[in-house]
Amino acid sequence: MALSREEAEDLRTILTAMYGDMASDWSMNEQVLAVLNEIAERNKACSVAMDFVPRPVMGRPDLKYIRSQLKAIAQRVAKRNVFGSGTYWICSEMTKAHYKFKFVEASQLGEGW
Questions:
Q1: Rounded CA separation 5/78 (Å)
Q2: What are the phi and psi torsion angles at 27 (to 5°)?
């Protein structure tokens, strides 16, 4: 099913916020929407994985440091499972960079706004 004009405008607003003015020239269609869905899935998976990473430490981490991080890791995991939101900046930036060409390519497929 083709995107409505309103859906296409909303999609363009999102992509322009992510990629700047270059996205204003892209044709908004179902393929572009599918790529945005891929980004959402990848960001979520990345952020869930990042919850399990101990935070940086000065020097070499040891068992004592890892033990001190357990509570913070557990809290991050619990918070994500309860609220289901939040994306790490690094996940967003890496995913955005990885998918830029996919958006360009998808915008050239099919009809769109």
A1: 39
A2: -80, 125
Residue environment code for 11-27, b if the CB has 16+ CB neighbours within 10 A, otherwise e? bbeebeebbeeebeebb
Backbone φ and ψ for 32, nearest 5 degrees, come out as -65, -40
Q: How many CA atoms lie within 13 A of 44 on its CB side?
A: 11
Residues 22-77 pLDDT 10s: 998 899 999 999 999 999 899 889 988 988 888 887 788 788 887 888 888 877 77
| Per-residue pLDDT reduced to its tens digit, 12-29 | 999 999 898 999 889 999
What does the DSSP 8-state code read for residue 109? S
pTM above 0.85, yes or no: no
Say which residues have a Cβ less than 8 Å from residue 100's Cβ, sequence separation at least 6.
19
Task: Fill in the amino acid letter for 97.
Answer: A
